[in-house]
């Protein structure tokens, strides 16, 4: 198939490459000419803009926008819609808020344009490992671009089949992509995926914090263990209940430097963690772990909260406890 | 009554004073001669040590140890027990762990010594307002020293009676002290009191953080409110559902400086918050709020956790996200 | 002043009564004729609808909508706006989302109508104690209706002045009402108030849970205390650091029945707890306690979460642990 | 080597089998004769008790106690110590509290007996996959039984080596076992492992709860997605950031029944989750996620907390809200 890809950053560029490796054609555009040139060197067709891209695609045209969530995606989808007509397909592969997908799909449907949202996991490893994709949109559109999704997905690979999985179940899930539901469903599932990701990461973070604390010279010597965090991460990869890809990454980082001194610990959060909590609240579902994980990131980015100071002030008020800056 | 008081810090000194104001006699000792002198100036009898104190008390002797929890209290109670005999009374008014009380009471009972544990709330305000006391120990011992507790307690004062409180209920509760149960029960109730205190404080802290955040110039102007936190604290004291003494203290601190710049925000925790969570876990009672409040204090005292760095490392591992120290 | 009040429920009816007691006139309307009749019996002027009400008010007309948040408030404000003109004042005293206030104020301003949002705390006790009010809107409008707010507020009463509060500060805060900022600011502050309220309530709830658990016969006898929760709540009201109005209410409920058997424990939440967390996330402010308090309410209303079952399923998967329904 | 194994339950029996498959000899004992018979059928040597077992072992004798934590392990270790002498080795492979290990090792060392604690992960899958082991004890003892650990461990298998792991690092970690430190260190690391396990599990549980809630007919139709949880779990196994063994197990459970109706959702917790929080508090390390995960399990086992009822009572007190049992 021929796919027009807008946004050639870490994700978009490699998606184009993986598609081309599978025999698909990629027409590419980015605001940075360098990014376009790099893809052209790998076999892509350059486009000078969205209108030019449209001219270079087949009919129905297939556009894949791979941009950060927010205004830029909104503008790009709008711009694509302007050059599209009946039957064309617009795919948003970024991290859009799923309610934006619902709205956009509705608006584009009025012009006969088919909108697909794709949540993509796999990060910088996707080019080699393939991308795990959660897809929302109308069935006919999703089916139309299925060859493309099949090429991007990891495929069965060496991961064992799930015991007990019935033969009749959707085979795409085992290839690493699913059609989750109508427009918005793809990004919704990806959003929850990221919410879980935050929770998993924080669970490891707290566990290693406790191991680290036990090795700390703040404890008296009899209570201390001098633990090798690198070896602990390694051994847990091998037969333990908590083995995971995130643990693999932790083990690798700790193998390089057990103090992790290259990392600031100012941990960013994308919108998806927050949206997951929003969704939980809309459904009245308690999500203490996912929320605590999100808040740990907020907290990692400030020195002291104002609330901390208020605590100090109250303690001074009732107990005369003095907690003043040195 | 005549009471021997060991430990003349912020709490012990004022307890002696309030007892003397009510006509009781205080024999006092402290490691700091200055502290003894100050009490003697207020009418107390000086003791040069525990043995000397014993000689200056009536029979049965009543000792009140008012020291920080931990080794020093343990040593003092042991030392008192050595000079005591059948029928004498040893009171621990510090913040001891209630299981230590159970153990001590048992050990002292073998020599006929009666042990009482008193959890005391009221902080630096107790001298004027009276002390709220939660008492554990055998009934006969607690009854014997009742006149002393009655003098220390706030009394009915201006606080309205609780609607619906039956006439037959223990009148002491309305005077501000209770006999909570056998040895340990007093400190157990005080421990939970402090656990709740942490939760309440953190609830206000987070609320004011959100108000502060809404006034922050990190928000775009249309989304910002320039809120006067001092007036908000003040108005909530008057007729709102969240009025409390801790809010009174917050209002006072904010009235002096709305930025609370005098406070570091490195918030200490005594053992009681931690013991409360221990008790919750022993009972298998979920206590998410009390625990989050405790952990917020731990977090206030570190710059970055090691866990934060591990999060950064994982994010770099899967997404190439760079979170390095500047 | 003459005020038109729409919505004569628990809150609206008593607001009308308190205004009339202070010499103001109330023109009243409710969908329930009985509610109108009751107010007329107390001296109010009946209106048959919004248009009729407008005719019975002075110029500028002052409308006070006191309805639950959501569609009904939106419709009512729209209906009022239709009969209003330049300079008239529309007050929303319900629990509206503050962003709705911002939007409404803007829309109404185009017709010269002045919109005020009032967050009101005090519950069923407001008629006697007065209402604590947090007000948003333009200064001239808020000033115009000041006599009405002054009548509704608790006034100085017996609550002591805050030590350290400067003389020059807004005196209204000490009377129990504040002008918090432009439209939306009133409901924003009230929203955070409710968020804090949830946190405070849950802190007490967990504390009493731990006291209750310690009295449980699930513990072996030596580890158990037979605690009198009624007396504990009572004594904490008197001189302790955690005294508050919510504790007063708890003491009263426990005095009536220490088992609280009349209460289901299916705890509702209004929108404001959720909006507070939304606001925290928008500001990137960690709010672990307020969130845990909200989630505890969600959790109180379900028997088992699906997540609980998944935990059981995983435990069965790795450990052969059997957690099946009996 | 020849190893005496006491406790032939799910774990102990399979450990004996895996050792025998590797050419080691197992002398076995259990309170259930049936369990002994089953092992003898697989090639083990029966012992009629600990003394008999000692007679059938080489010198130094190697005992492996594989019993649930608590009194039974304590009694067994004591009984073994009574028949042991200088140089013999006692291994506790159960889930003991690490502070018990420290104490036991000290006591046994006085008689020249060498104590080793082994935290074992792998559950019912260990016989085939091998056991991930975290080992504490003196170097000479651990080295002596190394062939046994090597046989029990998974070995390198198909799990890729960690990129960046230096050549010089302890090779045992890559085989799936580590010598973590002195006595207690093994169970300490295993304890934290289980704490993390709880956190990971709860992160998935909450995520699937949110997916489930989105499919609920409590939502209005436009806001609902009819999500296939089985396929979602499956697709996340393949190339996503959150792939893990626990997810594999979830996918398998959901493949068998997407409603998980066979599971009660009354989720048990072993002591290790609780001890992990204890350790965090001793180190003053915030562990919000691990604690929330533990508390979710407590909460899953009660219908309503007493605290829930107190919330209802307060709500009735200030707002007249009625939350009574139907």
UniProtKB/TrEMBL annotation, chains A, B, C, D:
List the Pfam families hit by this protein, alphabetically.
6PGD, NAD_binding_2
GO molecular function annotations of the record: NADP binding; phosphogluconate dehydrogenase (decarboxylating) activity
Q: Which domain of life is it from?
A: Bacteria
The protein's annotated pathway: Carbohydrate degradation; pentose phosphate pathway
Q: Which InterPro entries match?
A: 6-PGluconate_DH-like_C_sf (IPR008927), 6DGDH_YqeC (IPR004849), 6PGD_dom2 (IPR013328), 6PGDH_C (IPR006114), 6PGDH_NADP-bd (IPR006115), NAD(P)-bd_dom_sf (IPR036291), Pgluconate_DH (IPR006183)
GO BP: D-gluconate metabolic process; pentose-phosphate shunt
Domain 6-phosphogluconate dehydrogenase C-terminal, first and last residues per copy: 186-321
The UniProt entry, under SMART domains, shows:
6PGD (SM01350)
Leader peptide range in chain numbering = none
- UniProt entry keywords in alphabetical sequence: Gluconate utilization, Oxidoreductase
Protein family: Belongs to the 6-phosphogluconate dehydrogenase family.
* PANTHER family referenced in this protein's UniProt entry, alphabetically: 6-PHOSPHOGLUCONATE DEHYDROGENASE
Give the protein name, as stated in the record. Decarboxylating 6-phosphogluconate dehydrogenase
């Amino acid at each position: 198939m021929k796919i027009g890809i807008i946004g050639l950053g870490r994700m978009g560029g490699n998606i184009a490459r993986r598609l081309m490796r599978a025999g698909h054609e990629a027409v590419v555009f980015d605001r940075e000419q360098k990014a376009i040139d790099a893809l052209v060197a790998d076999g892509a067709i350059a486009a000078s803009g969205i209108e030019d891209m449209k001219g270079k695609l087949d009919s129905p045209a297939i556009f894949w926008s791979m941009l950060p969530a927010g205004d830029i995606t909104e503008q790009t989808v709008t711009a694509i819609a302007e050059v599209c007509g009946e039957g064309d397909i617009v795919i948003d592969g970024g991290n859009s808020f799923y309610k934006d997908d619902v709205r956009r799909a509705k608006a584009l449907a009025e012009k006969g344009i088919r909108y697909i949202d794709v949540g993509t996991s796999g990060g910088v490893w996707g080019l080699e490992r393939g991308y795990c994709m959660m897809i929302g949109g109308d069935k006919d559109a999703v089916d139309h671009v299925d060859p493309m999704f099949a090429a991007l997905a990891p495929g069965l690979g060496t991961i064992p089949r799930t015991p007990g999985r019935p033969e009749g179940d959707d085979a795409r899930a085992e290839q690493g992509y699913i059609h989750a539901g109508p427009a918005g469903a793809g990004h919704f599932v990806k959003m929850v995926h990221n919410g879980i990701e935050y929770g998993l990461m924080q669970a490891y973070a707290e566990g290693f914090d406790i191991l680290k604390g036990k090795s700390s010279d703040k404890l008296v010597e009899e209570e201390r263990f001098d633990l090798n965090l690198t070896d602990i991460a390694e051994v847990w990869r091998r037969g333990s209940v908590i083995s995971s890809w995130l643990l693999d990454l932790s083990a690798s980082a700790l193998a390089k430097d057990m103090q992790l001194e290259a990392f600031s610990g100012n941990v960013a959060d994308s919108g998806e963690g927050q949206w997951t909590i929003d969704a939980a609240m809309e459904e009245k579902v308690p999500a203490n772990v996912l929320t605590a994980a999100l808040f740990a990131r907020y907290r990692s980015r400030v020195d002291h909260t104002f609330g901390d100071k208020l605590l100090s002030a109250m303690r001074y008020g009732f107990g005369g406890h003095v907690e003043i800056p040195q």
